[in-house]
């Protein structure tokens, strides 16, 4: 990884996005139906349908600091690389013969932490798959920060998990927290961090790496596999999330081609739940003609998302 490039790239965020960013870390949230530089209508959305449900989609553009983004990305890439055999092969070869590589594409935040696309074992997606050119892994155990060369990250994750609603599974989650995030006696955990979650619950956490030429077609996450809340953390290149009204017609998902687009920048977090989770399809647009914001094309680049979902009580028990 070329850290020099990281510092350099930070100064070169694309103008369209840079002008939208506030100066520092902020927990200001944006809704779909109120005016925001990060949200635009797509088609002619029915805002009435979301009346009183503002909280069903929340967007925090600056949820994580630059340092926190780097730590989370290290964690995600560490896990993704462990399950990517192509990546492991490439890495061994590179370590023995080549100096560290600079960025391959784009000028977005964190691109310096990625290698060229050809070094990764991206899946092409199957004929019925909604996602193309990606790597994915469930994160079930959290490594000791020293293993991934990162500072303690439990408090960063805690801020994410604390956004999930309380559930009957809080005891189990507390155990998971101690076992996986804070191994007993872990020397780098300060007493202040060594506290149980206030609002824990059973969760699943996925890391999803989308190649610059990857994209996700409209879909509703499997309603049998997880609960009512989906949290998405964005790390890396800017992408557009599209939310469109959708209805299930037997096995067919009918898309109404109206809803909202949300500009997802690095360090942002979104929450979709209830009406948005079930009555809208979501997609990540490909780069190119569709990925234009304020008349400026988004610069293609790698993006990793951390997807946190609550586990349905009947699945968890
Ligand atoms: O990367 C994202 O923000 C969305 C991912 C997604 O839709 C999924 O994993 O089901
Ligand atoms: Fe999804």
UniProtKB/TrEMBL annotation:
Transmembrane segments: none
Single GO MF annotation: 2-oxoglutarate-dependent dioxygenase activity
Superkingdom of the source species: Eukaryota
First and last residue of the signal peptide: none
GO cellular component assignments: mitochondrial matrix
One protein family per Pfam: 2OG-FeII_Oxy_2
Name recorded for this polypeptide: Fe2OG dioxygenase domain-containing protein
């Amino acid at each position: 990884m070329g850290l020099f490039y990281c510092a350099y790239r930070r100064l070169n965020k694309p103008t369209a996005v840079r002008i939208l960013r506030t100066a520092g870390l902020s927990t200001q949230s944006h809704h779909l139906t109120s005016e925001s530089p990060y949200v635009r209508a797509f088609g002619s959305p029915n805002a009435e349908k979301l009346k009183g449900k503002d909280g069903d989609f929340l967007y925090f553009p600056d949820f994580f600091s630059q340092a926190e983004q780097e730590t989370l990305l290290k964690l995600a890439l560490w896990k993704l690389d462990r399950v990517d055999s192509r990546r492991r092969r490439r890495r061994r070869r590179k370590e023995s013969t080549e100096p560290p590589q600079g960025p391959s594409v784009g000028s977005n935040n964190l691109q310096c932490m990625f290698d060229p696309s050809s070094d990764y074992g991206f899946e092409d997606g199957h004929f019925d798959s909604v996602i193309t050119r990606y790597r994915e892994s469930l994160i079930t155990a959290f490594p000791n920060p020293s293993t991934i060369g990162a500072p303690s990250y439990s408090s960063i994750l805690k801020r994410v998990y604390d956004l999930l609603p309380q559930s009957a599974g809080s005891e189990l989650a507390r155990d998971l927290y101690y076992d996986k995030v804070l191994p007993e006696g872990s020397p780098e955990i300060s007493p202040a961090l060594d506290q149980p979650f206030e609002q824990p619950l059973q969760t699943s956490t996925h890391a999803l790496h989308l190649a610059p030429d990857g994209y996700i077609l409209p879909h509703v996450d499997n309603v049998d596999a997880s609960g009512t809340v989906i949290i998405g953390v964005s790390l890396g290149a800017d992408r557009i999330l599209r939310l469109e009204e959708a209805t299930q017609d037997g096995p067919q998902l009918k898309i109404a081609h109206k809803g909202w687009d949300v500009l997802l920048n690095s360090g942002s977090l979104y929450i979709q739940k209830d009406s948005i989770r079930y009555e809208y399809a979501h997609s990540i647009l490909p780069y190119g003609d569709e990925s234009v914001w304020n008349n400026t094309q988004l610069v293609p680049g790698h993006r990793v998302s951390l997807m946190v979902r609550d586990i349905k009580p009947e699945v968890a028990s």
